[in-house]
Amino acid sequence: MSEKGGAAAKPVLLSGGNPQIPKGEGDAPVQAYIAAMPGWKQDIGRALDTLIVGAVPGVRKAVKWNTPLYGAPDREGWFLSFHCFDRYVKVSFFQGGSLEPAPPVKSKYPAVRYAHVHEGEEVDAGRFTDWVQQAAALPGEKM
Asked: How far apart are CA 5 and CA 54, in angstroms?
């Protein structure tokens, strides 16, 4: 983050409270995104990141289009992202239609499925970890 008058400038929050973070590869931009998530969404972002890292050793990370992306360490493409909206954090599984059971929220794209985490909800660690491991084994989405 840039310095302005000796203090780090806060990221701009876009619609839904989604942080505007510069594009970048690796853990640092993802951690900057999570740190800039407003209020209760930050706890969800931390929980998601922790579960993903635990489920997929060596997971690749990046921020593109103000969204954290996660990829399998041994292949190109991305299997998951998350994004802030007003009332929830949307987790996108790019090959979610192939997961068993499929995440609950449909997309206009048949392969993509979503899980929404609302304020006050905890991430179901067992279910989420299973989805992440399945998703990481599938071909990634090129972006």
From this structure: 39
Residue 109 C-beta-side C-alpha neighbours within 13 Å: 11
Q: How many CB atoms lie within 10 A of CB 23?
A: 11
CATH number of this structure's domain 12-136: 3.90.1150.200
Give the sign of the dihedral formed by CA 31, CA 77, CA 60, CA 92: positive
> CA-to-CA distance for 95 and 80, rounded, in angstroms?
9
Domain boundaries, the chain: 12-136
Q: Which residues of 51-65 are buried (b: 16+ CB within 10 A; e: fewer)?
A: bbbebbeebbbbbee
pLDDT digits (tens, 9 = 90+) for 121-130: 999 999 999 9
- Of the chain, the percentage scoring pLDDT greater than 90 comes to 83
CA dist 143 and 126 (Å) reads 28
